[in-house]
């Protein structure tokens, strides 16, 4: 029987990870990670460098085969190698990798059209172009960016182009790996606002890896903390901040955290 995808509104969890184990040789990265991503939330994923945030995202996306555990994405078994099921998961997930991962020899518009060509090969070229233009504008880029090469854009604009491509297929589930890394504070705040606006307007669920405390305070509904090879907490920020764990205390109660918290409180 063909795999069935539950509508986002009916899915109890958009992503469900249980008992995830990832090892590289002797190195244990994950040892029993459990995590739920709920419909309509922005979940921030934090943890020290090397704690396994990217490996977790890659496992969920099926880009890495974990050593043990189960992963469901939109109710589908993300570890399955069934090509139809893989396509269904891919079709419903947008991904913005840290470096944007744009094809450097293609224009922004052509980059956005890559998934459209793969999944909507029957659409006339002019429609695909119009759809790409819509996504470019949705991501906050000027219309003329569509004909530019990634090398002709600033870092912030390249992130937006990557976001436009991630949104090309109108996925209900969006994965963002350090979206504000490398942006200046004003650009980063603008990108945070864009993510929040799009999430609300399009009803997206967002899995967001970040080191950026401002992003956590500004837009995340819940925060998952990766430490000691596990998710040691997954809760609203004010609860996670109180956790009696050395990394959490250092991260959330250092001077940078105070600045981010004050900025957030000052903005309200
Ligand atoms: N393909 C690989 N081969 C060997 N080791 C790997 C591989 N991918 C990741 N690792 C190791 O797994 C650990 C977790 O890596 P990961 O990239 O998930 O960390 P992270 O939490 O995203 O870190 P950062 O915040 O620095 O980006 C690291 O020690 C890394 O060296």
From TrEMBL:
Residues 15-253 form the ABC transporter domain. InterPro entries: AAA+_ATPase (IPR003593), ABC_transporter-like_ATP-bd (IPR003439), ABC_transporter-like_CS (IPR017871), P-loop_NTPase (IPR027417). One of its GO terms (molecular function) is ATP binding. It comes from the Bacteria. The keyword Nucleotide-binding applies. PROSITE patterns: ABC_TRANSPORTER_1 (PS00211), ABC_TRANSPORTER_2 (PS50893). PANTHER family: PROTEIN TRIGALACTOSYLDIACYLGLYCEROL 3, CHLOROPLASTIC. This is ATP-binding cassette domain-containing protein. It comes from Lysobacter niastensis.
